[in-house]
Write a structure and sequence with these properties.
Strand order of the largest sheet: 7-6-10-4-3-14-17-16
Strand content: 25-35%
Length: 492
């Protein structure tokens, strides 16, 4: 994500809860009608004496205890939604393919506000109940650890924004010509049922049906569209694992451009609410910026390129939605802006392909993406990365030094410290280890952690391995200290 032009970081969120459970159904005839949760009961397998227990209603993140869920690992979502802008009504069916990683009598999905009409697990009706934004699913039989299962959920309703008092609001929102689904750290659970934490990445298929004449843009490779009886279904596929908050949906009237680059499709869309101009020109340079970053970070990690520009009062930021970042029109009001494009594209490596294991380590995303802006500016003949560091170091507010970017706290997740001091940490590292080791580190990190999750401790360990230097003091000062560290030695 990049900085809101109003100086605030966007986002919304919530994550863990106490373990919830329902008594396991004893037959395939279990009702799919919502019921009140009952006390958990262990279901015993007659062949192995397994103890089946409810999966926890939380992924274990200290910052957002009610985000995500435990007990299973999702491999693929198939999200089919139909949206009627005139009625602000969403109707959907989502298929969740997952593997149990514990013996489960029930499991949770995050789903906010919408009405569940039907749930099946492996084709058999399953009991379901709602507790706040948790959907508790109790299959007819226990799910055995190591075995795959498929849950299908039918739902509908009027989506309501996800709100967090400290971080703002996000998720699926109606617009004057359609809708946009966007936000961080939470944005998926008000339009499809999901394990809404970046630690559980999955592949995605989207089928989005909208009134004929509107465009529906999502993540990944475009698979075409079909129109019938006044409705058009747009299909998209993201085959690389994706964190749920990086999924997106933009419905409306857009100027669409299609191309191909290095054998990959390029699909971009700019809202017609803007006159053609700077936004179109900036997004058109996506592949140029991506090619430069590929030279710095290694191979581009996804199967498609593109970008989406929206003009909505509630969206004053840009977000690195996978393979196709979404940008507020505000970034282009004063002319062409490829700096924000460089930031969001850098996230395709750092934040998307290499994703967070926990939200505390957000600086790994934002510090590296901000540093990529500095590198891009130097590449274009602007000030050097060292000059950008100097400006940030001298101009930083006291709050930047008081908030440690390596442990900012949930309320400061999108603070200036995470972005600017995060980038300064990257430059201090470069100064300490030298250019050869530094750029080797960036490529090795992107390659070794591709399509997976990572932590600050792992980054520090790799930096020490590549450089052959002990770096605890450097990272302690720059990531966790509450005073301004000494300025590093000269680099470019």
């Amino acid at each position: 994500m990049t900085l809101s032009l109003r100086g605030l970081r966007p986002g919304t969120g919530l994550l863990l809860a106490v373990a919830l459970g329902l008594a396991a159904c004893s037959s395939a005839a279990c009702s799919s009608t919502p019921t009140e949760p009952s006390a958990p009961e262990a279901a015993t397998s007659p062949t192995s004496a397994r103890q089946f227990r409810p999966g926890a209603a939380g992924a274990g993140d200290d910052y957002f205890p009610r985000y995500g869920n435990a007990g299973y690992d999702v491999t693929r979502y198939t999200v089919r939604v139909r949206y009627d802008p005139a009625k602000d009504r969403l109707t959907g069916t989502t298929v969740v393919q997952a593997t149990a990683i514990a013996d489960l009598s029930s499991f949770n999905l995050d789903l906010a506000g919408l009405t569940v009409r039907k749930v099946t697990v492996d084709g058999v009706p399953a009991r379901h109940a709602r507790t706040g934004d948790e959907l508790v699913v109790t299959p007819a039989a226990g799910l055995t650890s190591g075995n795959g299962f498929t849950a299908e959920i039918g739902y509908d309703g009027e989506p309501k924004l996800l709100r967090n008092e400290a971080l703002g609001e996000g998720g699926f929102r109606a617009t004057s010509d359609g809708a946009v689904a966007l936000g961080q750290p939470e944005s998926a659970s008000n339009w499809y049922p999901v394990n809404d934490h970046p630690s559980d990445k999955a592949a995605y298929d989207f089928e989005i049906t909208v009134p004929e004449g509107l465009t529906a843009v999502s993540n990944g490779v475009p698979l075409g569209k079909t129109t019938r009886a006044g409705w058009t279904t747009w299909k998209w596929a993201e085959r690389s694992p994706m964190a749920s908050y990086l999924s997106t949906l933009a419905i409306g009237e857009f100027r669409v451009t299609r191309a191909e680059h290095k054998g990959r499709p390029v699909f971009s869309a700019v809202t017609t609410k803007l006159p053609e101009g700077a936004a179109d020109a900036s997004i058109a340079r996506t592949v140029e910026v991506a090619d430069y970053l590929e030279g710095v970070f290694g191979p581009y990690p996804f199967g498609a390129y593109g970008g989406v520009v929206v003009s909505e009062p509630g969206i004053g930021y840009a977000l690195e939605t996978q393979s196709r970042p979404v940008y507020s029109a505000n970034f282009f009001r004063q002319g062409e802006n490829t700096g924000v494009v460089a930031h969001e594209l850098a996230h395709q490596w750092f934040g998307n392909s290499v994703a967070l294991a926990r939200w505390q380590d957000i600086w790994l995303n934002e510090g590296l993406a901000t540093y990529a802006e500095w590198l891009w500016a130097e590449h274009r003949g602007g000030r050097t990365a060292r000059q950008s560091f100097d400006a940030a170091y001298l101009g930083a507010s006291g709050q930047v030094w008081r908030i440690p970017p390596g442990k900012p706290g949930a309320t400061n997740l999108f603070s200036e410290s995470v972005y600017q001091r995060g980038a300064m940490t990257v430059h201090a590292l470069r100064a300490a280890v030298g250019d050869r080791a530094f750029f080797e580190l960036l490529k090795t990190w992107a390659a070794d952690k591709r399509d997976s999750n990572a932590t600050t401790a792992e980054f520090v360990a790799l930096a020490e391995q590549v450089s052959g230097k002990q770096l605890d003091a450097l990272f302690d000062a720059w990531l966790y200290g509450t005073e301004r560290p000494a300025k590093p030695g000269a680099t470019r």
